[in-house]
């Protein structure tokens, strides 16, 4: 008698269909969204660009009973500037960021990340808020926003709260957001330093094997302020606090930069996966941090 052949469950394939039922909403105001989140809470998922959520739904990694598409909420899509900060609405697309002279000049690390992220088609769909809320350790927007010390504004029907982005991620796919909350805005302080972002991936448009962002301020040849962040080398995007402390107050010197960049291995905890080994991530992180520091310093001299 021949071997029994069992059909492959549809939930193991990335098909063109979503193989379960859910209730779908298309609110047109922030108030409507917050009311829906209060009503359905953890049983609901917010759909922004859909570049992550739809894939997860197709393979049944998540099976929400309610899907709230916020694309029609125009009040969540903007790039605004005031004296002290740049404000990004959660629905601001990566293409919006790519076309922004303000982002390119004042948040160059984020602009670098945009240019390395996906295809034009993906950038037209994907949103900065969705990228953060997906909370992937490889999220391209996270290291740039970490070095620029962004704050995250969360909204619920009860009101709003702001938290530093350093407190936003709690683990792979996890954030401090409560089930009834929505990421409303990213607030980036305006500073006089320069930043950069570099990543390595297997092929163009792939997720990062490892990534690094840096921000630097220099006064009279001495590093006055520096921020270093990394992605894909820990359970969540992280700041390399000890490396930063080792650079502040030091003169700009290639040997010093290389020595401090090598210390980043003490602050990361990479793993082996289909994209790369832990060993490779440790080694390449040292190079990425050094190269990003050099790139940020070069931008300061322009």
Task: Give a written overview of the molecule.
- By secondary structure, the chain is an alpha+beta fold.
- The protein has three domains: 10-69, Uridine Diphospho-n-acetylenolpyruvylglucosamine Reductase, domain 2, CATH 3.30.43.10; 74-189, 2-Layer Sandwich (Uridine Diphospho-n-acetylenolpyruvylglucosamine Reductase, domain 3), CATH 3.30.465.10; 194-301, Enolase-like, domain 1.
- It has eleven helices and 14 strands.
- The strands form four sheets. The protein has a five-stranded antiparallel sheet with strand order 4-5-10-6-7. The chain has a four-stranded antiparallel sheet with strand order 11-12-13-14. Strands 1-3-2 form a three-stranded parallel sheet, with helices on one face.
- The longest helix has 24 residues, at 278-301.
- The radius of gyration is 20 Å and the shape is globular.
- The relative contact order is 0.11.
